[in-house]
Recover the amino acids of this structure.
């Protein structure tokens, strides 16, 4: 058992890398692996090029080269993925502690060893990467969408789930939250939802769920049906 990480067993099990793996097995996989990095609020994370990071305590702030805030990573999140298993080890964003934090850094050799020891770890890693690709595709679609309706369609396409009966539906966050995610005001969001409902694309079954019909939509960017 890795005594360094015993206190963070629950957090490790909740991280995407070790999802659905029992805590004792996670600690065994991490035995003598990784380096613990304590950070003071505002301190930059250094030396994570070519390493995968897991936030064990606190939160990290991701900023662009110009200092623009891009994302906030909470406890259990992964970072550094874009510099792992690639010859390009330089990172294009800066990561600093949003509060006093602790992260675990794993190098490529340690990751490969865990992938070979337990296929669940490699499966979890691939699932995480797939999720990131979907998220980035949505961001590109959202950035190139020219109308509120197209932005909402992009979000629906990437968020909807298909039930056992083949029916597509989406669970809604609060409308204020969704409007902020889509970069529009609530009034514009309500108008866009009304337009899609009139076009037969969505059916509002409740305040928290919509039924989605995409038969007349292309697989590319969201387009209003004729």
């Amino acid at each position: 058992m890795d005594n360094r990480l015993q206190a963070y067993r629950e957090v490790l099990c909740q991280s995407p890398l070790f999802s659905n793996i029992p805590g004792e097995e996670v600690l065994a996989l991490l035995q003598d692996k990784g380096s613990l990095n304590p950070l003071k609020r505002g301190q930059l994370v250094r030396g994570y090029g070519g390493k995968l990071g897991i936030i064990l305590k606190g939160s990290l702030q991701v900023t662009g080269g110009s200092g623009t805030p891009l994302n906030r990573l909470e406890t259990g999140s992964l970072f550094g993925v874009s510099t792992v298993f690639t010859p390009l080890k330089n990172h294009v964003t800066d990561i600093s502690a949003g509060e006093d934090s602790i992260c675990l850094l794993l190098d490529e050799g340690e990751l490969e060893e865990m992938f070979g020891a337990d296929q669940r770890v490699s499966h979890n890693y691939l699932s995480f990467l797939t999720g990131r690709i979907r998220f980035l595709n949505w961001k590109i679609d959202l950035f190139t969408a020219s109308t509120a309706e197209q932005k909402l369609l992009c979000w629906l396409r990437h968020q909807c789930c298909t039930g056992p009966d083949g029916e597509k539906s989406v669970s809604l966050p609060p409308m204020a939250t969704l409007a902020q995610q889509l970069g529009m005001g609530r009034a514009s969001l309500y108008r866009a939802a009304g337009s899609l409902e009139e076009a037969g694309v969505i059916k509002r079954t409740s305040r928290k769920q919509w039924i989605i019909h995409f038969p007349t939509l292309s697989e590319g960017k969201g387009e209003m049906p004729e």
About this structure: The chain is about 35% helix and 20% strand. Residues 136 and 142 are 10 Å apart (CA to CA).
